[in-house]
Amino acid sequence: MSRQKTPNRADPLKHRTASRTTKTATPASNLSFRVDQFPGWIHPETAAAVARLTAERGGIVWHWTFGRGERAVLRHRQPIPASLWAERHRVVHLSSRPGPWRNMVTPYAVGIMDAAFFPSVLTESIMKCPQSAGTEAVHNCIGYTIDRAPGPVLYVYPDETTARENAQDRVIPMLRSSPRLREYLTGMADDMGSLRIKMSHLTIYMAWSGSAARLGNKPIRYLVMDELDKYQNNKREAASEDLAEKRVITWERRAIIWKISTPSVVDGPIERAFKASEARFRYHVVCPYCGCELLMEFDHIRWPEDCTDPVKLLSRSLGVYVCQHCNASWIDADRDLAVRNGVWREESSGLELRQHLEQHRPISVGFHIPAWISPFVSLSKIASKALEYQLTPTLELLKDLQNNYKAEPWEAEFEQRDEDMILALCDDRPRGAVPGPLPPDRQGGKPQERVAAVLAAVDTQLRYFRYVIRAFGYGEGAESWLIQEGVAPTLEALDELFWRAEYLDAAGRSFKVKACIIDAMGEPQRTAQVYAWAARNRGRVFPSQGVHAPSTPVSYAPQEYFPGPKGERVKIPGGILLHKIDTTLFKGTLANQLAIAPGDPGTFWLHGDSDTLKAYAREMTAEVWNPEKNLWDNPHGRPNHAWDCEYLLQALAWMLNIAKKRRPGTAKPVKATPKPVPRPLVGSVADRLGALSRR
Predict the structure, then answer these.
(1) Which architecture, in CATH terms, is 82-287+343-378?
(2) Packed helices 395-404 and 583-594: angle between N→C axes, nearest 10 degrees
(3) Which residue ranges make up each domain of the chain?
(4) Using an 8 Å Cβ cutoff, are 429 and 607 in contact?
(5) What's the pTM value of the predicted model, to 2 decimals?
(6) 298 phi and psi angles, rounded to 5 deg
(7) Cys staple from 13: which of 57, 59, 205, 318, with CB 3.0 to 4.6 Å?
């Protein structure tokens, strides 16, 4: 700020009691003030000297010229909604459509951003499908707060790796790519870490579930909990969600909490948050043909009745949405236009978003984003997944369809099993026999291979090992056959059963066990033995641990040391991977297979020696589904070794991708060339050109 002193001969100094200074006419960037009365804190001698000098020169005018930064600080900024701020200042990087943020791409994100800053709202829950711009909308909100209402920010992710990756790949690029946000960076390398981003006026922290240290000791104004249903809580601490929410207490009604996640199971964290919201909003679209407003529903996604191939359905873009009012069939371009003209409505009052917020002033709001309103997911993709589940109704496909497309939790319903039902699955093979080949598909042809792989599973006990050997067929939902089950006293006995023994079919052809999965948990000495056995049989023995409701069907945890007392850590040569198995998913898959009637496609066959299978049948009925706990339970504490082995076999078949193996002699399927069907174009000229460019 420059300051200069100039005499004013025309206007002598006058004493004014109403004001201390008089502002003279100057340009907007310059200010001039005439001293009329001295403030009381000036020393009398100084005041007398200035008065004498002023009288001699006929008055003094002080001129100020403000710099760019000073003018920016003094300027009164008009309030704007977060959605408008995002269009002006946000640049997207990790996206199929990189560049400046445009609200027209995901119009439903506008309401999500603006609702978060309504005065009454303290918590916003977003139950969404993957890659639907829900998380990016929250990043926009954080950018808006950095610029307009600064305060400390905390991001919470499921694990440390995800937290660090998001800091480096999403949050820091968001700050650097925006000219407005870049002004708040300090320019110091130490301030741009993967766990803490220090800006000139606030700090952004990264934390993860299960770490009480990262979730504590920080007063937070803005809290973002991403992928809430994938959090892994520490058993010795309160839930990570609860610990994180305690961080905003000191900010009271000036704090905002965002909860974002793809749902998992019924009564999961994001579903509880969504249902607990005082106002729950769903997105209503406008039909481009009849102009009626409607809520899109999964049952109105259709495809040709004669199409029974999910790959063909997807490649030829045969999926459409049928309007509930005029029965018009929408392609993806029609869907995008319908969404562009849509609005959020509260599910109970039916009011539009802004109207409901102003009338009811809720403190918590929830938003539901299914895949069919997302421009990044085609209707044909959703239809192909629905058809795939119809053809092969496995629990894994149900979970994928519910969570990732409907954005709803999945709930398993299982038929109760009894021993007679299990023994009814016996065929006529003797124990230890592999099923024979299939008849030739044409006259004079060779018999077709029936068995894709022979796999084994082991349940580890303190003094012995229970094992099951099962053969799996080709293709999705194929049959499987119990070859042998029993008890092995040592790991050396398992070596003999799995790697040296041969199992014959009716034609005399021999089969060997391809791979084995073994339960590694229990006594530390037993776990160490299993780890050593897995290290010796690397690539064909997979140590495992059953976990409830993980983030993926199978996750992997590197193990570098044998378990043992503290201070006696022994390194595993080369290390191994511990495979953490989703017990809910694969036990549910097993229960569904047991419900298939003998002889139907996908039958879960047992061998014909029913006398040796009585203990096996009892163990296969030990666990039941507990809908209140949302897990498999053993209410009477009965032995369940066979059940554990069989669900581990389902996991091993999934890990090895056995269902995708092609039968020898069959040609590799050729992908069909997409042939989009021309449709009449509706809407504005811009909409028509956009639809043409997508064809």
Answers:
(1) 3-Layer(aba) Sandwich (3.40)
(2) 130
(3) 2-74, 82-287+343-378, 419-439+446-660
(4) yes
(5) 0.65
(6) -60, -40
(7) 59
